[in-house]
Predict the 3D structure of the following.
Amino acid sequence: MPYPPTVDTARLTLRRLRQGDEDAFLAIWADPDVWRAIRPGTPFDPEHGPRRFHHHLQHWEKHGFGLWLINHTASGDTAGWVGASHPDYVPQLTDEIEIAWSLRRPFWGQGIATEGAQAAVSSALDHLRPARLLSLIDQENVRSVAVAKRLGMRDLGSVEHGELNLQLRLYALEAPPTSTGLE
């Protein structure tokens, strides 16, 4: 069964990232509050968003799964992005699957990140069947740390971002055992 390009939750439509989404994706990365949460202490890099956007488009093509844009159903606005991808920026983890999320500032504190991330976890477990799922979070990003904990993830220590001089906390959720059908 292919990875779903669209998933609906109670308040959100999560839709595969596609070429025409660049402006919405870049607006998320360009938000100073978002940048400070994801890259604290790092000067804003206007080229980072475009690089990541093209990376994630290619990720869908190469691997058949990736990030979704989050559409807030009630407002019709793009609230952020969420989804599963390989964390290529940490060399020792490139074969693993990371669940990541980011929201525009007006959508913080409403449970949207958790709702979207729970859908991403469910889809990844159902369709990709990894041994575990990861989230890589700057320890100062207390909102994302709280989301990871609500997802049931455990803190496994720190890892270094392979492209930046930045330490990230590695959170992991072990996949539940699969049924053998022999019960």
In short: The helical segments are 22-30, 32-38, 48-63, 112-127, 142-150. Strands lie at 6-8, 12-16, 67-72, 78-85, 98-103, 132-137, 154-160, 167-174. The CA atoms of residues 103 and 142 lie 14 Å apart. The first strand starts at residue 6 and ends at 8.
